[in-house]
Amino acid sequence: MLNKSSKEVLSKLTEMGSDISGQIERGEFPRLKLPSRTTSNIVFDEKLNQFILGEQRAERSASNIKQIRSLTQLLWVASFAKRLVNEGKSSTLRDLYYHSLNYGIKFREQLESDDTVTDLEGLLMEPREAFNIFPKERSAIFGDLAIEYTTPETHKGKKANLSSNPDGVMVGLSVAQAEFHECKADKVFVIEKNAVFRRFIEERVYEKFNSILIDTAGQAPRLARLLIRRLNLELGLPVYLLTDADPWGMHIAMVIIRGSANAAHLRELTTSKAKWAGLWATDIKRFNLPSFPLTKLDEQRIRLLEADMRYRDFEWQSELQEFKKTKRRTELESFSAHGLTAIVDKYLPKKLKMLEEME
Amino acid sequence: MSREKFQSISAADFFYKNREIAGFDNPVRATYTIIRELVENALDACEQYSIKPEVRVKLIDEGSSIYRLKIEDNGIGVPYDQVPYAFAQILFGSKYTLRQSRGIFGLGGKMAILYGQITSHSTVKVMSSTGGFEKYSYELNINIQENHPIIRKKEVTPNPARWRGTIVQFNFEGDYIRAKPKIVEYFRQTSVLMPYANIFFVDPEGVLYRFDRITDVMPKPAEEVKPHPYGVDLEVVQRMINASRSNNMGDFLANNFHRVGVATALNFLKSVKISADANPKTLQPKDLLTIVSRMKDYDGFQPPDAQCLSPIGNDLLEKGIMREYKPEFVAVTQRGASAYSGYPFIVEAAIAYGGDIPIAPPDEMTVFRYANKIPLLYDLHSDVAMKVIKKINWQRYKLEPNSMPLAFFIHICATKVPYKTVGKEYIADRPEVEYEIEWALKTCAREMRMHLAKKDRVSSMQRRLTVFERYLPLISQFSTELSGAPNQPNIEKVLKRLQANAKQVEQRSLVQTD
Q: Smallest Cα–Cα separation from B43: which of B90, B102, B109, B88?
C-alpha cells in the first residue's frame, strides 16, 4: 500500500504547490481546502464499517490573519514530506518538530506540528506513513512468518523469519512494509500486554495454537494495525484480540476492528473481521477471576462507549451492560491466580471454541 | 488694670504683620511668591490690552541670601503720576472692577515689594512708559505705617524709540536653591497656557529658561461687567446706591446690574413688592435688606454671561500643551459659561497622552491646575479637581491614570475664583464648579478613548501587515519547493492588495472617530 502510492503522494504534493503558486501569481490570497476534522464532521460509514470524514471542508487562507500561520506550517510540512519521499528518508513527529525550528516556522509545541501532520494526511487522504513520517514504535511480532524486506534500500531483498528473536521483532516500517513469503501459522493473537505476550512465547502458544503473536503495548500503533490488516487480508489468517476486561481494553480491540475517530480521514487501517476474544466482562464470572471495582473514570468511559456508533452491535452492547451491572473489571494477568499456565491451558481453548460456536 | 489702646493700622502695616497669609512665610516660599506675583502683573499688563507678552525675568544672587529681581514687560505701562501709588501703596490698583484677571486687588506685587523692602532695606526701582515721548524712572519706598509711597528719586528722560512697558527691580531675602524646582515648574506651566507669549527667565546660576511664542493668536481680553444680582451683598448695594445717579429703583437696577434690563427690573421689584418709582437713596434699611436677600434666590434673572471672561480656547490650549509636553495626542474641551453665586466662570480641560508625559508614580496622577491662567502648584490633593478625578470611573473610558502616560489639565477662569484660602493654591469644591470640571474631563476622556481605540485599530493593522510580510514569502518558497517550478511566484500583487486594505481600515476608523 505504501510503495505503490509514493508516486501518487508526490504528484499530489506537486499539484498542491502549483495550485498555491498560481494563486499568488494571480494576486489572490493563497488558500487551501481540507476536510474538516471537527467532531460534527466525523461520521460512521456503514459500508466501510469505520469512521470517515463527512463533506465539511475547512479553509486555510492567507487572507485570514488567524490562518496564515497554519497555512504556512501546512505548506512547510508538505514540502518536508516531499523531501522525505524524494530522498527515501523517514522521520518521526518529534524529529519533524525539531526540524521545523530551522525554518522560521514556529510551532508552539509538538502538539501543533503533530496536528499539522494530521491536516496534511486529511488533505492528501493518505496516512503520514505514506510520506515517511512514522510514530514511535513499540509493538512487536513473533511467529513463524518468513518475510522479505522492501525498505530501506540497504535491506531490500533480505529475508528474515519473525520467530528468530525470542523477545519478538519490533513492528517498524520495514516489517510492516515487508513482503510475506512463507507462513506456517493459521491464526493471529493480538495481545494488549507485553507481560502476557511474553508468557505466550514462553508457553509456546505459537506452536500449541499454530499462531502468530503480536504485542500492541496498549492502543495499537498504526503500523501494527496495518500489519494486522495485511495478515488478515493477504494471508487470510483469522485475528483474535486479547485485552483486559475493562472499557479501555475493549476499545483497543474496537479500534483495530473499526478504526479510531482520530484517523477518520484514513482508510485501510482497520481489520473488520478481527474477533475480540476477551477478556469479556462475562469472563470474570465464567472463569472465576479475581476482579476490582470500576473507577468513576471507567464508568464515565462506559457511558461514552454506549452511545458510540461502533458499539451498536448486540454483543458489544451486552458486554457494556454487564460492566454496568457487575461494576467490576479485571486484567489478562489475573489468570495467574489459577496458575502460570492457566490462560494458555484453560482459557484459550475454551474461548476459541466459544467463538467458533458463535459463528 | 491696663487700658486697651485702640488704634487703626494701615493696610501696609496689616500685611506687614500678617505676611504669611499671602505666601511670604519663609524665604523659599517668598522667593517663589515674589516671582509669581510680578510675572502675573507683567502678563496682565499685556494681555488685558491684547498686547502679545514679552516678559523677561532675571534673578541675580547678591550674596548673603539677598537676591535682585529684575522683571521687564512690554505691557501698557503705568502713567507717570500713578507710578508711586501703583508700586508703593497697598490696595491701590487698576483691578477693582469685575473681570477676569490674575490678581484682584493688585496686592501681591506690592506685598512682594514690601517684603523686599523689609528684608533687604532697599528701594524699588521702576521704569515705565506708556509709549509716549517720555519714560520715567522712580526709586520708591513704602511708608509702612502710613501706607504711603516715599519717592526717593524721580527722573524723566526722552523716549525716542517710543518704548512701552515697565521694568521693576528690587532686592529681597530668599532661597533660590530650594525654591528652584517650583519656580521652573511655574514658568513652564504658565507658558503652557500662553503659547502666544515670549517668556525668558535667567536664574542666578546663569541658566536661561525660554518659552517661545508659537502663535500670534491671543484669546479675546476679558471685558469689564457690572455685578450680577446673585453676587452682591448689602454693603455692595449700599455703595452702588451712593454712587448712582438714578432716582428710582427701576432705573437703578436696570443701569447697574449685569444682565438686568428694564423688564427684569420691574418684574423683580413686583416680586419684592417695592415700587419701581421708589427713590433708592431714601429706601428703608428693611426694604434694602429684603431686596438684597431676594436677589440671591430670584429665578427671573438671566444667568451671568461670559464676556467678562477670557478663556484660552481649545486651539491655544492644545498648542501650549503640544509645545511643552509634545504628547502623542491631546483631547481638549471648553465648557459653556456657568456661574456660582453670581460669578460667571468657564472650565477648560485637556487630557494629554504619551510623548513627554511621564507615567505618574504609583498612587499619584499628573494633574495641572490653573485658575485665571495662574498655575496652582501647591495642595493638589485638597483641590476640587483632584476630588473629581478620583470620582470618575476611568475604566469606562479605557484609561488608567496610574499606568498610562496621562496628564490632566484643568483651567477655571472666573471673575472671582473660589479659592479656599488667601494663598490662592487650591479651589474649593463648589458643586457648580465640580459639575463643570467633571463633564469637561469626561468629554476629553471620551475623545481620548476614541483616539486610543483608533490607534489600536491602526496598530493591529500594522501588526497584520507584519505578519503577512513575514509569512507570504515563506508560503511562496514552500509552494515552489512543492511544485518544483524554477521560479518563486511574485508576492508583490498580494502585498499591494493588503496595503490598500490597510489604508481603507485606517480611513474607516478616521470616519468613525469623527
A: B102
- The residues of chain A that CATH labels 1.10.10.10 are 4-134
Question: For residue B104, is pLDDT > 70?
Answer: no
Task: Determine whether the interchain pair B471/A69 forms a contact, defined as Cβ–Cβ distance below 8 Å.
Answer: yes
pLDDT band at A1 (very low <50, low <70, confident <90, very high): very low
Measured between beta carbons, the chain A residues lying within 8 angstroms of B500 are none
Pick the CATH number of A4-134 from 3.40.50.970, 3.40.462.20, 1.10.10.10, 3.60.110.10: 1.10.10.10
pLDDT of residue B147: 77
Nearest CA-CA partner of A19 in A117, A118, A123: A123
Per-residue confidence band for B513, with pLDDT thresholds at 50, 70 and 90: very low
In terms of Cα–Cα distance, which of B68, B69, B67 is closest to B39?
Answer: B69
Picking from B467, B472, B483, the nearest residue to A65 by CB comes out as B467
Residues of B with CB under 8 A from a CB of A: 464, 467-468, 470-472, 474-476, 478-485, 488-491, 493-494, 496-497
Q: ipTM above 0.95?
A: no
The answer to whether the Cβ–Cβ distance between A68 and B483 falls below 8 Å is no
Q: Which of A225, A214, A297 is nearest to A260 (CA)?
A: A225
Question: Whole-angstrom Cα distance, residue B252 to residue B280?
Answer: 7
Q: What is the pLDDT of residues A220-241, one digit of tens each?
A: 988 899 999 999 999 999 999 9
Residues in chain A closer than 8 A to B476 (CB atoms): 21, 24
What pLDDT band is residue A2 in, cutting at 50, 70 and 90? Answer: very low
**Minimum Cα–Cα distance from B460: chain A residue:** A65
- Give CA–CA dist B477/B474, Å, rounded: 5
CB A44 within 8 A of CB A254: no
Tell me how many residue pairs between chain A and chain B have CB atoms under 8 A apart.
Answer: 94
* CA nearest neighbour of A123 among A28, A50, A40, A20: A20
Contact B350, B409 (CB under 8 A): yes
Please name the fold of domain A185-358.
Answer: Dna Topoisomerase Vi A Subunit; Chain: A, domain 2 (3.40.1360)
> Which residue intervals of chain A bear CATH 3.40.1360.10?
185-358
Q: Among this protein's residues, is A347 annotated catalytic?
A: no
A122 in B contact zone (CB under 8 Å): no
pLDDT tens digits along B419-454: 776 666 777 788 888 888 999 999 999 999 988 888
The length of chain B, given as a count of residues: 514
